[in-house]
Amino acid sequence: MKLFQIEEPDGSPADPDIPGAAVGIDVTGPQAEVAVAVGGNAVVLNDRDGFELDLPVPSSKAAITEWQSLFEGARLRAERALARPVTHAVVVADRDLAERVQGGAAEARLILLRVLRPDEITGVHRVLGAAVLAEDLAPRIVAPE
């Protein structure tokens, strides 16, 4: 039984080999949305009052550094809301953004589990579907025996 987790001052886990949380990120609108799922139940993550982050989605021609900033902001929003590190994501993006998404996520040190086109998620809000898939695809922490 794990009673608490010790973290470094920057919020990363004391053991860097342990994966953090996995989130869904939707970059198909003018502002990115971030969500997390637990037990298949997903919720959109919002910023606390006074700590709002603007997450504008860069254009398809924007530099990778702009995409990196977007993913760093999305990860920060999730880490603040979850009070734990975020290391993995499923991203919903238009087809023409795949290269920018992959490059920006890599520069932000966010491991992409999958990049989905908007038409690949039906019946639910896209970011919620991405969060559920992220939970399913996330690496599992194996407890020592």
Give an overview of the whole structure:
The protein is 28% helix and 20% strand. The protein is built from three helices and five strands; from the N terminus they run βββαβαβα. The longest helix is centred in the middle third of the chain and has 19 residues, at 64-82. The chain starts with 20 loop residues before the first strand and ends in an 8-residue tail after the last helix. The model is unreliable at 1-5 (pLDDT under 50).
List the keywords:
single chain, about 140 residues, alpha/beta, 5-stranded mixed beta sheet, 3 helices, 5 strands, globular, disordered N terminus
> How many strand segments?
5
The coarse silhouette is globular
Structural class by secondary-structure content: alpha/beta
What is the spatial order of strands in the main beta sheet? 3-2-1-4-5
- Spatial gap, N to C terminus: 11 Å
The run of helices and strands is EEEHEHEH
- How much of the sequence is in beta strands? 15-25%
Main sheet properties: 5 strands, mixed
| C-alpha Rg (nearest Å) | 15 Å
Q: Overall pLDDT, averaged? A: 89
Unreliable stretches covering 5 or more consecutive residues: 1-5
Number of helices: 3
Helix content: 25-40%
